[in-house]
Write the structure tokens for this entry.
Amino acid sequence: MNARPRVLVNEVGPRDGLQNQRVQVEMEDKLRLIGALVAAGVSSIEATSFVSPKAVPQMADADGLLLRLPAKEQVRYSVLVPNERGLQRAIAAGAREVAVVLSATETMNRRNINMGLAEARAACEATLAAARAAGLRSKAYVAVAFECPYEGVVTPETVRTLTEAMFRADADEVVIADTIGAASPADVAALLNPLVAQHGAERLSIHLHDTRGMAVANAWAALDAGMRQFDSSVGGLGGCPFAPGAAGNLATEDLVLLAAQCGFETGISLPPLMDAIDLAAQITGRPLGGRSHAWLMRQYRSHAA
């Protein structure tokens, strides 16, 4: 009997999901959430970011958090680093995998990190080279890969050029990010099919938002294009503080359910994942849940009431 094909779910709730919350989430609660995700079978987690605490106060505890992460030998933890200074902090805290973010447009880079596109690209390349020299695994996000909130539609040629540049700079993986949730399934297929053909699906990942309600449809288009690595966030938690109009991320439970019903294996169990959603809602003080949440509640909680 053939094993079902594997989909890697990279949970970004603890970083991308929490970075823009109005309620300051304490380190102990972050660790509780990460522990709940691990208990559900999540094996890849974006834990935090080593950015300026003034820019993103929610991530001010990055150094201490990284030291206390559970199940470090079983879980692939990554951290976001904006530059070489952040990389050195991450290395000192014991990071094994880092990510850099390069926006695909001039204006988005200036609004996000106060650099133009060329300068931001050079900074990412330098950080990736330093990570490689330190023996770390690295990945590069190409943000606003479909549409920029300031400059509009981004051409596939631009994304292909930046993806190639990040691979030449020794990134192990490039993540194509629909930062503001503007893509359609047709857009996803048109961009990803040539990238998968050129670089191989094992070197690529995708990051989706649900701003226009198409994150799950876009995830299916990515699966159909051969993609097997996805970012998602527990309960759809998230939204970029530097990208106006960006709603929450693709919900982890929606991705897991989609994969399961379409013949893919994620290693994640939905009942304990529902517990993680409850915890995320509790610590952020807001209701959470993806497109499938109401159905999952009936499926797994109806007999417990």
